Amino acid sequence: MARPEVTGRRVAHSIIEAMQESGLGRDSLYKAIRAGKLDARKAGRRTIILNLYEYLEALPRMTAAEDKAAS
Fold it and tell me: What are the per-10-residue average pLDDT scores of the chain (71 residues)?
């Protein structure tokens, strides 16, 4: 695996850290892992997410109409 660029971002997040950082719930994160959208590894019993920021940036943008409906 290539060494990631120094970006000031963490390289890996636990599930709890990913929940806090993204605002997503545990079930949503595990669903994305099962769907292959989040790259995760196991370190003992701990699940580590490697591509949290890339996943979040790839989510679809809200349109102005959706933003108004959400308000």
Answer: 62 96 97 98 96 96 78 71
Identify whether 35 is part of a domain: yes
pTM of model > 0.90: no
HEC secondary structure over the chain: CCCCCCCCCCCCEEHHHHHHHHCCCHHHHHHHHHCCCCCEEEECCEEEECCHHHHHHHCCCCCHHHHHHHC
**4 is a domain residue:** no
Assigned token pair, 71: 């308000």
- Count of residues in the chain: 71
Contact 15, 40 (CB under 8 A): no
Mark 16-28 as b/e (b = at least 16 C-beta within 10 Å).
Answer: eebeeebebeeee
